[in-house]
Amino acid sequence: MRTVFLTALATSLAVPPFLQGQTPDDSEWNHFSTEARLAFNIRAKFQNVGGIGAVPPPPPSSGGAVDRTYGDGFVKVDSSGNQGGLSWNWGYKNASQVPGNDTVQFHASTVTGVTTSQRDDPSLGFDVAYVRDFGHETWGRWGLKTAFGYNSIHLEDRQVYSADVSQVTDSYSLHGLLAPLAPYTGSFQGPGIAIGSTPTRSIQSSPGGAQISGHRSVDADLYQLHLGPQATIWFSDRLALEVSAGLALGIVDSTLSFSETVVTGDSTRAISGAHQDTGILAGAYVDAVLSYRFWRSASVFGGVGFESLGTFNSSAGPRSVQLDLSETVVGLAGVRWSF
């Protein structure tokens, strides 16, 4: 067993006879490779999460003959034109909106959306490359590399957040009448119980007054082109260092989708949407790998790369996402054939 072990070790360290004269020489000017890519540090910034930019109802200074809609009801113009400053075209949802026997309160909330970041580690992909040598030197060779690649990106956020709320409260007089039991909906034609049509308004800010649940995600296909010089430095007949750098182009085909529930003091709102965007990004790349020639014209290699393509922005209604591809670190491993 000792003899077998020593023989195997000596064989692995020495250049086998069938490789004699088969190391890179002037007969190999073309190199084709395929490799797996693991991309790290791809990030997504989801913006305006849970944001509800509701337009507040017209202020009291607009008078009593205007329509006002709230998160928990409405007070609108009736068939009489709100004659006498009264309207029977109104409705409310909750008994808590009648704190006494003299007024009905309505609420409209604006939620300030939050920003959250997620990172995708790793993003799986692959590429194919062709290198054409332009020169063979005593230290190695140099040429031009062209590579086409693909990465699949998925980033998702399912956290629950709190957000700040600005709440408008409008109070309408019952003029001594009893409010009908909630929920209640009056009509344009009427008749019905009439309340005052001009409110008294107050505005209150509630830090953290809204709870946001649900999810938001971005799915993207990233198609890449790398073009730049490559240098190969041989350490031995088998082992070499390969370095390339140059232009990086990317086509991003992304879909932003979200489904959220926003709960405030006066309402619960479900908001969802999706949108697809495509764009082109430009930047730079650099790769460094160690290659090992294990057969006449075949090598395996592995290493790391860095790519910077900038940022890609997309929006779906009130939500938006910024996909950050500016600091992507890539793990590389593949096989190469030379001829």
Could you tell me how far the N terminus lies from the C terminus, measured between alpha carbons in angstroms? 40 Å
Q: How many domains, as an integer?
A: 1
Query: Sheet bearing the most strands, described?
Result: 8 strands, antiparallel, barrel
Low-confidence stretches: 1-23
**Number of discrete helical segments:** 1
Residues in β-strands, percent:
over 45%
Helix content: under 10%
Structural class: mainly beta
- Average pLDDT score: 90
Rg over C-alpha atoms, rounded to the nearest angstrom: 34 Å
- Sheet with most strands: strand arrangement: 1-9-10-14-15-16-17-20
- Following the backbone from N to C, one meets helices and strands in this order, namely HEEEEEEEEEEEEEEEEEEEE
Outline of the structure:
It contains one helix and 20 strands.
Commentary on this structure:
The chain is mostly beta strands and 339 residues long. It has one domain (23-338). Helices cover 4% and strands 64% of the residues. It has one helix spanning 2-13, and strands spanning 30-40, 42-49, 68-70, 73-75, 86-87, 90-92, 103-111, 114-120, 123-136, 140-157, 161-173, 184-185, 195-196, 200-234, 239-263, 268-295, 298-308, 311-316, 319-324, 328-338. An 8-stranded antiparallel beta barrel has the order 1-9-10-14-15-16-17-20. Strand 15 and strand 16 form a beta hairpin. It is rod-shaped and about 100 Å long.
